[in-house]
Amino acid sequence: MIEILNPTLLARAKDTGALVADILQALKSRSAIGANLLDIDRWAETMIVEAGALSCYVDYEPSFGRGPFGHYICTAVNDAVLHGRPYDYTLANGDLLTLDLAVSKGGIAADAAISFIVGDAKHSESLAMISATERALAAGIDAAGPGARIGDISHAIGTVLSEAGYPINTEFGGHGIGSTMHQDPHVSNTGRPGRGYKLRPGLLLALEPWVMADTAELVTDADGWTLRSATGCRTAHSEHTIAITTGGAEILTLPKESRP
Asked: Is the pTM of this model over 0.85?
């Protein structure tokens, strides 16, 4: 299913996107050395409930997972990259943490992810990897607009990641979003320009470049959810929800200090 939002629903999407961004930044500020992943999950739950929103994850039960996800946020540490299920782990200095959050408010969902170093940020290779996903995300957003194709976005993202030297996994990527968290079209993190669905104003997309330092192969944890690099290398993941407008693409999940 591909949804095209009318102006009323698009206004709701902007509110949801702002909420996702604000919660992520609040959680980042609290994700210090000694914080537990289960605490981060509880903090996310409190902020979502207090905002009158709903988690997109608690009852999420896709074919690739094992039962309902059962938590309010994805917390991926070091070699974990996607669908990180919170567990009893205390953050240590230098950990690379990814927070991935999707909530629904007013019937419209928004999805975003950030990666950062906990404590002392002197891990130059990890910082370079995070930067590559952020630059790839920006390139994908720049390629989006009415009349562009999904392949144009995928090509822009993949070009940045490949030039930075990272293998690209195509099993998981970006996606349409709207009344539900995951919709068509799929947005691969590499592709050929000029191919795929033509973008229209009112379309929401969640773009999410992610990489692993030295492999494109994933392995699944015993929890049935958390995806890790097959080699144990570190990973990074950046994501924004965008709205296609008549003038281009509008980022809905910008942090408060970056909003127009």
From this structure: yes
